[in-house]
Design a protein that fits this description.
By secondary structure, the protein is mainly beta. The protein has two domains: 77 residues, Beta Barrel (Elongation Factor Tu (Ef-tu), domain 3), CATH 2.40.30.20; 89 residues, Beta Barrel (Elongation Factor Tu (Ef-tu), domain 3), CATH 2.40.30. The chain has three helices and twelve strands; from the N terminus they run βββββαββββββαβα. The strands form two sheets. Strands 1-2-5-4-3-6 form a six-stranded antiparallel beta barrel. A six-stranded antiparallel beta barrel has the order 7-8-11-10-9-12. The two termini are 18 Å apart.
Length: 198
């Protein structure tokens, strides 16, 4: 379980296809603090550490993860947002994030509003499961969504988040991972028990 509060950026330095899986190697300031079998969020995707050393850690993404996320499209040198799983006696500064990405979304526009940024996203093939001023996880970052119209929504990003995440690298047509709030998913499942949700 995660909170959507990013700890560090990781740079992709190795990428190897193995059958239907992809093995990734990331260099980051927290790689040396990780251990094998630990869960860590990469752009909001929960992955298990398979190897690690002082500067690098390695994870594997299976086909289902690659189908639902932007990980397969990440190129060598690109950055991802990293967050280790939460400590249960800590503060939940964002919202409950599982690291189970529901879909990808594309950036329609980025608006600089003199001190912060407004991002407009669009997605398809999934039910929205968002409410005005509710929570959404974008590339692993816990944010508040607003101006929800059909399959589009906006988020506002403050300078600290902009500088310390890969939001600063996003531009029009960039693809991000989104995870809807788990509470909304459970409510939908209770109301419509014959559906499996997103």
């Amino acid at each position: 379980m995660f909170t959507g509060i990013i700890e560090s950026l990781g740079q992709l330095t190795e990428k190897k296809v193995e059958g239907s899986n992809i093995n990734f190697g990331f260099k980051s300031p927290i790689s040396g603090e990780l251990k094998v079998d630990q869960s860590i969020s990469h752009n909001g995707v929960c992955l298990t550490v398979t190897q690690c050393n002082q500067d690098m850690h390695y994870v594997t993404a299976v086909q289902e993860t690659l189908n639902k996320s932007n990980l397969g499209a990440i190129e060598i040198g690109e950055e991802v947002n990293l967050e280790r799983c939460m400590i249960m006696n800590g503060r939940l500064d964002g919202h409950i994030v599982q690291g189970h990405v529901d879909a990808t979304a594309s950036v329609l526009s980025v608006l600089d509003v003199d001190g912060s940024w407004i991002y407009l996203f669009t997605f398809k093939n999934v039910d929205p499961l968002m409410v005005e001023k509710g929570s959404v996880c974008v590339n692993g970052v816990s944010l508040t969504c607003f101006d929800i119209i059909n399959n589009t929504f906006k988020v506002a990003v403050i300078p600290y988040t902009y500088e310390h995440t890969n939001f600063k690298n996003l531009k029009e047509d960039s693809v991000v991972n989104i995870e809807f709030d788990i509470i909304g998913k459970y409510i939908k499942a209770l109301i419509n028990p014959n559906t499996h949700g997103s």
